[in-house]
Amino acid sequence: xxxxxxxxxxxxxxxxxxxxxxxxxxxxxxxxxxxxxxxxxxxxxxxxxxxxxxxxxxxxxxxxxxxxxxxxxxxxxxxxxxxxxxxxxxxxxxxxxxxxxxxxxxxxxxxxxxxxxxxxxxxxxxxxxxxxxxxxxxxxxxxxxxxxxxxxxxxxxxxxxxxxxxxxxxxxxxxxxxxxxxxxxxxxxxxxxxxxxxxxxxxxxxxxxxxxxxxxxxxxxxxxxxxxxxxxxxxxxxxxxxxxxxxxxxxxxxxxxxx
Length: 259
Description:
- By secondary structure, this protein is α/β, with parallel strands linked by helices.
- Helices cover 31% and strands 25% of the residues.
């Protein structure tokens, strides 16, 4: 689908002077100059093609293709029949990663996002990518939604370009992780700093706990260029694909609070 080209302008401010979730751009539309933070996804999704133009054309983000490629390779190496896999795509947005999952052979994908604007954008731009799409808060999942999701018998969780900046809190990721069947698969990417010892955020502690306590058996961990910044610097992330060994215990979930 061909979308209009937007007039996007980046500020003179060096991006390293801002947190990655504070970076902004200007959009000139109807002779008005509108300022958006990169993480104001709801407003960005309302404008068809703006998300793709900003992140994938201007800033050369390649995470959906990269993580999908790694997941596909790991599953093939483990002789997993991908057409039988049931993937929960957490932070599905407008369906970019869901689309990539189909390219590596996955047939059944369930999308989840907290934003109704994301759901509307997905239906507009990539109809049919998801077998179902739930708009809900995984930090506070009600019993009926949890039961409905459990009925899908999820055996793979994906989460791409959505973790660690408050977009998806640690508790939301943990609740999604616990919906995955034992020996199911998990694929996600995270900013490289989240694996540093100095990072004590809730999400960083959660990921480290998964690895230390062997709740997640790592099959592939790779550092790669996620995208470039507005001033041209390379931003590196880690892509991780692993097999779930057990649920995240309640005591660890409660210790994360709302972080």
